[in-house]
Specification:
This is DUF6891 domain-containing protein. Pfam families: DUF6891. It comes from Kribbella flavida (strain DSM 17836 / JCM 10339 / NBRC 14399). The protein is of the alpha+beta class. It has 2 domains: about 5-65; about 70-175, no CATH class. The protein has helices at about 5-20, 25-40, 45-65, 70-85, 95-105, 120-125, 145-160, and strands at about 90-95, 110-115, 130-135, 165, 170-175. It has a 5-stranded mixed β-sheet, with helices on both faces. Strand 4 (about 165) and strand 5 (about 170-175) form a beta hairpin. The mean pLDDT is about 95.
Length: about 180
């Protein structure tokens, strides 16, 4: 038996992990198993984790039936693909800035780096705002008025993704509707 608060938190974690659209079933299972072992040690992860994933996936499938053909994450993917074609390194759903930095350092002649973390996506799932970090090739943050920043903001706006630069990051307003198959 787990408490109401722990149950709510585990279901919330399952929800954002599944709805992120970036984690596969194995990654979702691993993250939830760890959370159950840590937060609900009396529960059996082999029973509870599949239940949490099943509920979250079923709710997502039901919601997806009402979504438009092209969603905000679809348009975001198009922007990110275009940025990659321009030589900007794009790192999606990484653990932290260290992981993103490694991808930048491994690239040959990068024009910059755009990245967002797993927790940035979880925030977008729950609150409709995704933070994009945008760095120059030397890992310095972009600053207002710089061409790299203006180019990224222009592409986002052209794809109907409202975005503003605030305190070193681009805040993109999104309804997080990523189609997922787990």
């Amino acid at each position: 038996m787990i408490g109401e608060r722990t149950d709510r938190e585990l279901r919330g974690l399952a929800r954002v992990l599944v709805r992120s659209g970036y984690a596969d079933r194995a990654a979702v299972t691993a993250a939830l198993t760890e959370a159950v072992q840590e937060d609900a040690p009396s529960a059996d992860p082999a029973v509870l984790v599949p239940e949490l994933i099943g509920e979250a996936a079923a709710a997502l499938r039901a919601d997806a039936e009402t979504w438009p053909a092209e969603t905000n994450p679809d348009r975001l993917d198009a922007v990110l693909d275009e940025l990659e074609s321009l030589g900007i390194v794009v790192v999606r759903y990484c653990a932290d800035h260290h992981e993103a930095r490694k991808a930048l350092e491994a690239a040959s002649d990068p024009k910059g780096l755009v990245f967002f973390t797993d927790t940035d996506v979880w925030h977008a799932v729950d609150f409709g705002m995704l933070e994009l970090k945008l760095w120059h090739p030397d890992t310095a943050n972009v600053a207002p008025g710089e061409p790299l920043l203006e180019d990224v903001l222009t592409l986002l706006h052209e794809r109907d993704l409202p975005a503003v630069f605030d305190e070193g990051r681009i805040e993109v307003t999104v309804t997080w509707q990523r189609r997922v198959s787990l």
